[in-house]
Amino acid sequence: MSDWEPKIVSFLCTWCSYGAADLAGVSRMEYPANIRVVRIPCTGRMSPKFALAALREGADGVWVSG
Amino acid sequence: MITFNLNGKKVQGEEGQYILQVAEKYGVNIPTLCHHKALDPAAMCRICTVELFDGRRRRYVTACNYPIWEGMEVFTDTETVHQGRKLIVELLLARCPEVPVIKELADQYGIEEPRFMKEEDDCILCGLCTRMCEKMGNNAISLTGRGVDMKVTTPFEVQSDMCMACGACASVCPTGHISLAKIRESMTTRDTKLIASEYDMGLQGRKPVYVPYAQAVPNTPAIDRDVCIHFKTDGCKVCTAFCGVDAIDHSMQDETIELNVGSIILTPGFQPFDPSSFDNYNYAQHPNVITAMEFERILSASGPTEGHLVRMSDHKEPKKIAWFQCVGSRDMNKCDHSYCSSVCCMYAIKEAVIAKEHAEYDLDCTIFYMDMRTHGKDFERFYNSARDEHGVRFLRSRVHTIDPVPGTEDLEVRYVTEQGDAETETFDMIVLSVGLETSPETIELAGKLGIELTEGNFVKTSSFTPVATSREGIFVSGAFQGPRDIPQAVVDSSAAAASVGEMLSPARNTQTKEKEVVPEINVVGDRPRIGVFVCRCGINIAGVVNVPDVRDYAAALPYVEYVNDNLYSCSQDTQESMADIIKSKNLNRVVVAACTPKTHEPLFQETLINAGLNKYLFEMANIRNQDSWVHKNNPDLATDKAKDLVRMAVSKVALMQPLEEAELNVNQTAMVIGGGISGMTAARSLSGQGYETHLVERDAMLGGQALNLFKTAKGEDVQKALAVLTDDIQQNDKIHVHLNTTLTGVEGFVGNFKTTLSSNGDDQTVEHGIAVIATGAAGLQPDEYNYGKDERILTSLELDRRFMDKDPSLKEMDSAVFIQCVGSRQPDRPYCSRVCCTHSIDNALELKKMNPDMNIYVLYRDIRTYGEREYLYKKAREAGVIFMQYSVEQKPMVELKKGKIIVRTVDHVLGRPVEIEADLVTLASAIVPNREEQLAQFFKVSLNEDGLFVEKHAKLGPSEFATDGVFLCGLAHYPKPIEESIAQGQAAASRAVTLLAQETVHTSGTVAKTNPGICSSCGVCVSVCPYSAPSFTEGGPFAGKAEINSVLCKGCGLCVSSCRSGAIHLQGFDNDQIFSQIFALNEAV
User: Fold this and answer.
1) For chain A, what is the domain count?
2) How confident is the model at residue B1082, as a pLDDT?
3) What is the mean pLDDT of residues B272-291?
4) What is the residue extent of each domain of chain B?
């Protein structure tokens, strides 16, 4: 196993997944720190351009959840 | 203040502080094994030894208990200090070679093997336990013996009740020498059970200081006085040493607060039935027999197993799980609860489906039931898919006994199948679907308030005032009103609010206070001057993230003019100082790096408003919930992430513009469409709360389906009550009744609807602020069972009509058959019509009352007399009504032969065909919605595949639509009995009043705006918006271009992403703002 860690940019819907990410914290769950969250008002706001921009800026993965 | 030198740097501490405390403040790490913040230092482990230069000579002192003095010089990490510590660690390693914390230290100091003789101890004699015990106000353990014989033990090494089994010693022991097991075995004679966590149903323990559950509001810890040691010994108070803001006050007393109120709503809820007394189910003895509530916790991601499906005895993944229905419900033998708890069938199916989803293997889920009661909206579909798609097994059988399988943790059950075969099956885990019951405390409360209860200990109500208790001014909602699920509880809560609203409407707005408005500073065109406030959140953030580092990092970011860190940014004093700083530093954008915007954004926005800034010039960086709390073992990575999040927030906030919230007047008139019982109730409630109401009915008279009903399930005369209600409506000068009237056009939106009413060719336009849709449903005219071919074959409503007409022939009949689920629960109409089981049983009892010798048969699939309607089912069986079950594959046959009606079915017990000669066949026909497609279009709401209106939220918004200003009640929502229709009528009125009472509505600032100059008029935004906010501009220079109604816009951004011309902008989440966050990432990723 290599120790390579992908860098992940996530776009989370403020109503569900962003709230769930908050709840993960409240519940003191742990997950790797190599994720950066961009809060969006709804996954309906998500645009392919955002995913492409994140990849262009060096992200290895883009996660959209909502 | 005392100033001294620490590792060559000038530091400051308070008089009386020790070196260790000051070093900690400055982030200088000194190792220690025996130090505890809440205890006096003891210098037992010596590992905190540091070098001290007093001006003349160097010496070695223990940092934990050496007080600081002016001008001293301390070195914490010199070579000699290191050598000294290494020797101590080596000695400790020889004494305790297997203790993890010592092994870890040895590793740090590069010791592989101690040079000294190894022992097998696991106590390092740090004395934390004995000092902690003393701190607890107790002296149950101490260090005894001298030199090599020294050890921690109880007086005379005997087990006694002197040790209170508080576990404080075990909680501080760094090596695991003292554990709960050891306390139990050698120290105390008291009970050493964990304090059961109420939230986790006792599946795990909790502390005496605790937050009841993660989502608790307020999310503030409480001290459980019953178990807190301080309240037993006057000692402890350890928690106060850890609270950074001195918020803990052990001397607080219960207060009696007197409130002067005009009305009371009771919502005390229920308690889950405790099956401990059922010894045949082994619940109390066997860890793998659990209640459904416990299973909920096992399935929950925040539960004791973090959502991992395991059984409690050995944490193995179960392969086979069984649910037993009706534990503590429909049972007079063991628990005195003869009512049905209404919710258990559905939750058991849900749990089985979720369990199957959680298991990554083929999990066998079996539900043992008597009648499957999925009578809620879309519940029958869920039941069907659980069985057909998820493969949940449903067995109609009541299991008598659960036997543990010897030598395993498994459980054996024996049951009899529907075919009469005895079977034995082994399960890994059994879930008891426990019912709902009213707690003794609640019963006592009812007694104090003097309100009447039913035989099941629920509040006695009338079907026509479903949320009113027997005492005027006291209302009820939720499970205390009767066992019910969430949607019904939500409906009833709104209904109770409406009832109170009607009573107290003259007092509305008499106790409100005006808020002082701070004038807003215009910052448009100004260069951004950003203030960044980094929150420590006590130790919640600062304990993981290096807050000073993040703060200093933020200071160097573009446009940042001011940075600071706060202990608690949300505290009132910090809020005030933030407002002052914004004003004094002339800041025009603010970033708070703290917790989550979901809970705290409004609070900080309020601070901005108080400082004269537009509230949208704000952004939060979530460095607690999504950083420090989830990366607590990676402080460096967490700090890096915090910096990234702050940078992203700063680059976004720089692009934020002040946004306007438009104000819109709400027309204070209501319109109710449908003059049935729920529509009339809604109209009466609205008018009772002071609003002019138009009640539109397409027929020539008010009453709707209630006109066809004889009695309620509680035996009340429907026609009498209906006449009173109709009279009330007609006498009410605030209600304008429009009979023989339909809607032919609706324009406008929330607060400002303009509706065209047509009556016999005359059109009239009515302006109104809200609309309630109460268009009802109708009884199905069956096309099976020879309906229509013989007048003795009729529907339930037609039988009601005969009762109302006092038809004398009914008395003369020898035999009557009721056939259930006619048109319901079948592929073309898969929902359950909810009311028919109760209705038929009620009518069967009515016939029995007329002629006790009449033979009555009810042919059913599942009897669904939910809640206290179950008493009727019991009563009918006692009265001799015969219930015969049939399956949808083998429906009964109704034949007409030589003037006789012959009903053929298969007896479910004997498995033999049965032939009944009937004088009356009543078909419990389905309730069919009116499929109001045009109305749905008019108000931009939707219908589901069954033709029922789709509410805003199946659980939380049953009486309103996703489209603002439009509300829903009655049969148009879902089949329901009169009491539920009335409650929902009130509920719809209540929801509508929340809007009407505001008089004006404010739009959000974060809404979409079009740029008509580049709009191509393609219409995609108009078609994708679920809230009907975009439309084509009519007239003017931009005619035909899209525009967005900011009142209706929810700011989701769907149109923005869908716009192919880039003509739509979502304010606050615009492209450049989101891109700026992504671009700010490039240093991060």
Assistant:
1) 1
2) 67
3) 93
4) 2-77, 128-242, 273-436, 440-507, 530-654, 667-715+728-734+746-778+929-997, 780-926, 1002-1082
Chain B residues 972-1011 with CB within 8 Å of chain A:
1006
- Give contacts of B 789-848 with A, CB under 8 A: none
For B771-808, what is each residue's pLDDT tens digit? 999 999 999 999 999 999 999 999 999 999 999 999 99
pLDDT tens-digit map of B364-409: 999 999 999 999 999 999 999 999 999 999 999 999 889 999 999 9
| Structure-block tokens of residue B160 | 């006694």
Q: Mutate one of A42, A52, A55, A56 to test the B interface: name it (highest B CB count within 10 A).
A: A42
The answer to whether the beta carbons of residues B668 and B999 sit under 8 Å apart is yes
Please give, rounded to a whole number of angstroms, the shortest distance from the CA of A38 to a CA of chain B.
7
| Whether the Cβ atoms of residue B150 and residue B130 lie closer than 8 Å to each other | no
The ipTM (two decimal places) reads 0.97
The H or E element containing residue B748 is strand B741-749
Q: Which of B512, B528, B637 is nearest to B585 (CA)?
A: B528
CATH code of the domain made up of B780-926: 3.50.50.60
Q: Say yes or no: domain B2-77 is CATH 3.10.20.740.
A: yes
Contact B1074 A54 (CB under 8 A): no
Cα gap B674→B669, rounded to integer Å: 16
Residue-level pLDDT at B1085: 47
Instruction: Determine the angle formed by the axes of helices B597-610 and B572-584, rounding to 10 degrees.
Output: 50
Residues of chain B found within 8 Å of residue A61, distances taken between Cβ atoms: none
Q: Residue B1084 — pLDDT band, cuts 50, 70, 90?
A: low
Q: What number is the average pLDDT over the span A54-63?
A: 94
Q: In terms of pLDDT, which residue wins out, B680 or B1026?
A: B680
Region B474-494: mean pLDDT is 97
**Angstrom distance (rounded) from CA B1049 to CA B198:** 41
Residues of chain B numbered 599-638 and touching chain A (CB < 8 Å):
599, 622, 624-627, 629-634, 637-638
Picking from A33, A40, A47, the nearest residue to B631 by CB comes out as: A33
Cβ-based contacts of B624 with chain A (< 8 Å): 25
Q: The tokens of B116 are what?
A: 């000294």
Is the pLDDT at B978 greater than 80, yes or no?
yes
Question: What does CATH list as the number for B667-715+728-734+746-778+929-997?
Answer: 3.50.50.60
Residue B1065, φ and ψ in degrees, nearest 5 = -120, 140
As a whole number of angstroms, the distance between CA B479 and CA B476 comes to: 9
Count Cβ atoms below 10 Å from residue B23 Cβ, excluding itself.
22
> What is the rounded CA–CA span in Å between residue B482 and residue B866?
10
Check if the beta carbon of residue B593 is closer than 8 Å to that of residue B645: yes
Closest-CA distance of chain A to residue B1026, Å: 11
Q: Tokens in use for B645?
A: 């999040």
The class of domain B1002-1082 in CATH terms is alpha beta
Number of A/B CB contacts below 8 angstroms equals 133
Cβ partners under 8 Å of residue B98, min gap 6: B120, B122
* pTM tops 0.95: no
- Domain encompassing residue A46: 8-65
CATH of domain B273-436: 3.50.50.60
pLDDT tens digits along B31-68: 999 999 999 999 999 999 999 999 899 999 999 999 99
d(CA A2, CA B259): 66
Task: State the Cα–Cα distance between residues B1007 and B351, nearest whole angstrom.
Answer: 39
Q: Do B629 and A25 touch (CB under 8 A)?
A: yes
CATH code of B530-654, in short, is: 3.40.50
Q: Is the peptide bond before B218 cis (omega within 30 degrees of 0)?
A: yes
Q: Contact B634/A33, CB-based, under 8 Å? A: yes
B771 to each of A17, B621, B768, B813, B1068, how far by Cα in Å?
33, 41, 7, 48, 31
